[in-house]
Amino acid sequence: GAGVSQSPSNKVTEKGKDVELRCDPISGHTALYWYRQSLGQGLEFLIYFQGNSAPDKSGLPSDRFSAERTGGSVSTLTIQRTQQEDSAVYLCASSLAAGDQPQHFGDGTRLSIL
Amino acid sequence: ILNVEQSPQSLHVQEGDSTNFTCSFPSSNFYALHWYRWETAKSPEALFVMTLNGDEKKKGRISATLNTKEGYSYLYIKGSQPEDSATYLCARIPNSGNQFYFGTGTSLTVIP
Q1: CB contact at 8 A, B75 and B23
Q2: pLDDT at A51 over 90
Q3: Are A113 and A50 spatial neighbours (Cβ–Cβ below 8 Å)?
Q4: Which of A67, A79, B24, B108 has its CA 20 to 30 A from that of B67?
Q5: Interface subset of B 9-68, CB within 8 angstroms of A
Q6: Inter-chain touch B32–A99, beta carbons under 8 Å
Q7: What is the DSSP letter of B3?
Q8: What torsion do the CA atoms of B67, A45, B29, A95 make, to the nearest 10 degrees?
């Protein structure tokens, strides 16, 4: 079946603009994660959704970042008033459950803020 | 250890050599340890999920061990091949089972 799909694959935008990144998880996967990888850094946890539970937003770096997951499936990560330090690869992953199930990653969105 | 640490940061080996690298993590509040392989221009791919102290997992020429009491996991590659060239990431999951704490990875280059 289809894997995790992310769009767009690349996004270049001007500082101060808002951006929206999309993630389509594998059908039936209840857990969905967003990460980012900045240049030279490891994977940084941003937010986690599990079923209908309230998301774990503890990794979001500022209030300019928000995410939602509609109908327990598609998720969007929104960055408002983008800054140059937001430039990174944003990865989405889904799994059957949290913790003890492998994560399936999308190909990521490469975000560049000019 | 407060964070997940991986060593070495990078490694170059000759084709056919066997190699191993380390993932160190806080031993308290442990739930699971994951290993992923991340090839250039691709997305990370799951290798192993390990939960029990003493766990050993194997997938072809790649194997991993887990010591939760002392807080480390080893990844072994036997007879390295050029296609093994990738960054190998480990992630610790604490008892809450929610957050994944990734290391910065070990970059492996296998020279033909």
Answers
A1: yes
A2: no
A3: no
A4: B108
A5: 31-32, 34, 36, 42-46, 49, 51
A6: yes
A7: S
A8: -70
3-state secondary structure (DSSP) of residue B58: strand
Structure token digits, residue A67: 């995410």
* Min Cα–Cα distance to chain A from B20, Å: 20
Closest-approach residue (CA) in chain B for A107: B43
Distance (Å, rounded) from C-alpha A28 to C-alpha A37?
A: 26
* CB within 8 Å: B102 and A33: no
pLDDT at position B2 over 80: no
C-alpha span between A22 and A107 (Å, rounded): 12
Among A9-18, A55-64, B25-34, name the most confident range.
A9-18
Instruction: Give buried/exposed letters for B45-79 (b at 16+ CB in 10 A, else e).
Output: ebbbbbeeeebebeeeebbbbbebeebbbebebee
Tens-digit pLDDT profile for residues B35-94: 999 998 889 999 999 999 999 999 999 999 999 999 999 999 999 999 999 999 999 998
**Per-residue pLDDT band at A97 (split at 50, 70, 90):** confident
- pLDDT at residue A56 above 60? yes
φ, ψ of residue B37 to 5 degrees: the values are: -110, 130
Distance in Å, alpha carbon of A81 to nearest chain B alpha carbon: 27
